[in-house]
Specification:
One of its GO terms (biological process) is iron-sulfur cluster assembly. It contains seven helices and two strands; from the N terminus they run αααααααββ. It is mainly alpha-helical. It has a domain of about 110 residues. Helix 4 packs antiparallel against helix 5 and helix 4 packs parallel to helix 6. The two termini are about 40 Å apart.
């Protein structure tokens, strides 16, 4: 029984390891070169924001932005389903970094990302979270300590009272 548990845990970890490596080394900037905007372009964009200028977004651009925001929310919720603190924090931060890079892309490249990679990355993250939940080891102390009831000294007896 112990051997089986260790084997399953190792299989789970080895299944996640190559994916973690690939996610760590692949960034949106390599797939979409316009994410590396020139400093002058970024400066103009920041000045427009500072001066209060609003760019007029077309209906298609608003739809793309709404889809990107929805996908980002789904991926962050999925990343928060990991039981292990380290995996959870890693994937939440990774999703935030990916979508920060995606925000710098043009509308056409964002649409291309949504059509080709977005849903696939979400499904991949959902599968990893499910496997992590199925074969998770003991919960981390801080995760369990937050769920325990608080104790307080009360009624003059000096004995702790559990609420």
């Amino acid at each position: 029984m112990v051997f089986l548990r260790i084997t399953l845990h190792c299989l789970c970890f080895t299944a996640l390891l190559p994916l973690r490596r690939s996610l760590a080394h692949i960034s949106l900037t390599t797939a979409y070169p316009s994410a590396l905007a020139s400093p002058s372009t970024l400066f103009v964009h920041q000045n427009r924001k500072a001066n209060g200028e609003k760019g007029s977004m077309s209906a298609a651009a608003k739809t793309v932005q709404k889809s990107v925001d929805r996908l980002r929310g789904q991926m962050i919720r999925t990343a928060r389903r990991f039981r292990d603190y380290n995996f959870r924090q890693y994937f939440v931060q990774h999703v935030k970094d990916d979508f920060a890079a995606l925000a710098k892309l043009s509308e056409e490249e964002q649409r291309k990302f949504l059509a080709t990679e977005g849903r696939d990355k979400l499904r991949q993250l959902q599968r990893m979270a499910l496997v992590n939940q199925m074969y998770a080891k003991r919960p981390v102390y801080f995760d369990t300590a937050a769920q325990k009831p608080h104790r307080r000294q009360d009624d003059g007896t000096g004995k702790p009272v559990i609420e």
